[in-house]
């Protein structure tokens, strides 16, 4: 099975679809017009791509080859979306209506909506599909959702809201590591580590540069490290999740934002909002615990102002 990269090119109003057949083996990017303000993409259980289009208050449905298959009306200004493992459902955060929509991909329709705090954004769903953490960008908090009843009767509950500091810290991205959530906040010089069941911030990892504007976060496949994009300095901070310290900085490019890791070859893909490109960082064989060695680096050209990038699995490597 091959990989398809999907870049949400916000300023260009398009999605860039890039087939990957192996390490550093990429096909020609296909630009698909999607409307004003695409912010995020995800693959549903049906294999199709779903894009949050903020200006039209919709989720656009695409086949992996870029063919449009419909639109799903959700709340105001959808910002992020995430599939719920083991179900046909997607969660969609609606920044303008302070809610999270549940979209049934089998029927391409919204089936539920739950109220959360102000300006929800990034979403991380647990591997078992029983819970999710949602960044409340306008409230300086995260919402914890109970998804245990979703597959049974379509219910989603708000289990807790956990403050990260003041209301102005602007949580922008979240990733899960076991029972913890790692939250990148644009106006914090630390990485808050939230104990989800305990409902508290249990660690604050000091980032190496003040005012660097953390924008994205992902956890490596082994769960040993978190990778945090620092938008203002164009770098990736590597965080040791045992020691809760930053071990190294990796240069990326202008204004790095959302990122994703291909677990098959530990390649990192990051949207560079300032230079119409995806940064590609090869971590295979790199010791992240030290500053020794230098990762291999390349770029893939996409449309203007990419905000995020997602991975999809496809049967045809030529798609």
Give the count of structural domains.
1
Task: Specify the CATH class.
Answer: Mainly Beta
Poorly predicted residue ranges? none
Q: What's the CATH H-level homologous superfamily?
A: YVTN repeat-like/Quinoprotein amine dehydrogenase
Please tell me the overall pLDDT.
96
Beta-strand content bin:
over 45%
What CATH architecture would you give? 7 Propeller
Q: Which radius of gyration do the C-alpha atoms yield?
A: 18 Å
Number of helices: 1
How are helices and strands ordered from N to C? Answer: EEEEEEEEEEEEEEEHEEEEEEEEEEEEEE
Q: How is the CATH topology named?
A: Methylamine Dehydrogenase, Chain H
Rounded to the nearest angstrom, the distance between the terminal CA atoms is 11 Å
Write the topology of this structure:
Blueprint: E1 2-9, E2 14-22, E3 25-26, E4 30-33, E5 38-43, E6 49-53, E7 58-62, E8 68-73, E9 78-83, E10 89-94, E11 99-104, E12 109-115, E13 120-125, E14 131-136, E15 141-146, H1 150-153, E16 157-163, E17 171-177, E18 180-185, E19 190-195, E20 200-206, E21 214-219, E22 225-230, E23 235-240, E24 245-251, E25 256-262, E26 267-272, E27 277-282, E28 296-301, E29 306-314
Antiparallel strand pairs: 1-2, 1-29, 2-3, 2-4, 5-6, 6-7, 7-8, 9-10, 10-11, 11-12, 13-14, 14-15, 15-16, 17-18, 18-19, 19-20, 21-22, 22-23, 23-24, 25-26, 26-27, 27-28
Describe this protein's structure:
The strands form seven sheets. Strands 1, 2, 3, 4 and 29 form a five-stranded antiparallel beta sheet that branches. A four-stranded antiparallel beta sheet has the order 5-6-7-8, with no helix packed on it. It contains one helix and 29 strands. The longest helix is centred in the middle third of the chain and has 4 residues. The chain is mainly beta. InterPro entries: Haem_d1_sf (IPR011048), Host-pathogen_enzymatic-act (IPR051200), WD40/YVTN_repeat-like_dom_sf (IPR015943), YVTN_b-propeller_repeat (IPR011964).
